[in-house]
Design goal:
The complex is a heterodimer of chains A (156) and B (182). With 156 residues, chain A is of the alpha+beta class. Helix content of chain A is 35%, strand content 13%. The radius of gyration of chain A is 15 Å and the shape is globular. In chain B, 41% of the residues lie in helices and 2% in strands. Classes of the chains: A alpha+beta (156), B mainly alpha (182).
């Protein structure tokens, strides 16, 4: 049994420990906000946090989460109060939206480490999260806005 | 007088022995260099900030950067994608323990070096990670990232020598004087 915490609640998985965390989250725990994109860590759609750092859950065996803390898109906030959620809504970032769970998880990790990120910081952090709709200009604006909101004390 | 003659004779016989050791040492290194220059090794021993990947040594996708400690930038760490073992899926990320590049302040870069330059770089503590010769041999024999080259996961080829052959050549090179010229 692999045991860990997801979005503040204890969770476990009693099957093959090499199972990708993505499928445990989606199929076993019902957290379908995290998306399957490429399955080989090339697109970033499946990004979640493990112990505060982004990981690609499609290639991460659930065993790596043993004893750890996982945060998914559902765990940012339940009332859309996280600065990244606010900024994404305010700027209306998504087009189709499929990649944005991953985009937002990477963005939230970035602003927690760099409260006032430069464009270069955003490029360095977000370049592994692809968007086929090409919303990159709005993503960049929203990351700056989310950081601003966080500095003003809106959520975390 | 006889002592002088004896010393002269010893000197005459020692010189060819030293030359022979240097030749054997450097020849062993040159054979081992085929491994050191293989993409499985060279792709991370790079002078710039962007690792290479694949057998064609193309720049790593996703604009990946070395970062100061070699483990990526603040958010885009190597461990975002790379695990402690290879992905079993073709084109999935390879992995080993401590998957990262050399740190920015000690890049251990080999790209473009000829045999003599590569040999000297490996021995120079200022550019080899401050490793002694024994440390260097130990690194080649036991570092999980070096051993990964012979277990690179689906779709990747291994260096042209076996890991055992490589270790024997590195040991021969060092034990016979770590020569960087014949």
């Amino acid at each position: 049994m692999v045991q860990f915490n997801v979005n503040g609640k204890p969770a476990g998985f009693d099957d093959d420990p090499s199972t990708p965390l993505l499928w445990v989250l989606r199929d076993s725990l019902g957290l379908t906000g995290t998306k399957y994109g490429c399955g080989i860590a090339r697109c970033g759609a499946c990004t979640v946090h493990l112990n505060g750092a982004p990981i690609r859950s499609c290639v991460t065996p659930v065993s790596r989460a043993e004893g750890g803390v996982v945060r998914t898109i559902e765990g940012l906030s339940t009332d859309l109060s996280h600065p990244v959620q606010k900024a994404w809504l305010e700027i209306q970032v998504p087009q189709c939206g499929y990649c944005h769970s991953g985009q937002m998880m990477t963005a939230s990790a970035l602003i927690s480490k760099a409260p006032n990120p430069t464009d270069a910081d955003i490029d360095d952090a977000m370049s592994g999260n692809l968007c086929r709709c090409g919303t990159y200009h709005r993503i960049r604006a929203a990351v700056h806005r989310a950081a601003e909101l966080m500095r003003k004390g809106a959520g975390q | 007088m006889s002592l002088v003659i004896t010393l002269l004779l010893l000197g005459l016989t020692a010189a060819p022995q030293t030359q022979s050791n240097a030749l054997n040492s450097f020849q062993a290194f040159q054979k081992a260099a085929a491994v050191l220059r293989h993409p499985r090794c060279l792709n991370c021993h790079i002078p710039g900030d962007a690792p290479l990947f694949g057998s064609s040594a193309e720049p790593h996708a996703m604009r990946v950067k070395r970062g100061s400690d070699g483990g990526g930038t603040a958010v885009m760490r190597c461990t975002v994608c790379h695990q402690e073992t290879n992905s079993e899926i073709l084109h999935g990320p390879p992995g080993s323990k401590e998957w990262r590049l050399p740190p920015a302040n000690n890049r251990m870069a080999w790209v473009g070096l000829d045999d003599h330059q590569l040999c000297r770089a490996l021995l120079d503590p200022k550019v080899n990670g401050r490793m002694s010769r024994d440390n260097l041999a130990h690194h080649m024999e036991t570092d999980p990232r070096v051993l990964w080259a012979w277990n690179p996961g689906p779709g990747r080829d291994s260096p042209p020598l076996s890991q055992r052959e490589f270790v024997v050549l590195i040991r021969t090179w060092i034990e016979k004087g770590a020569a960087c010229a014949p």
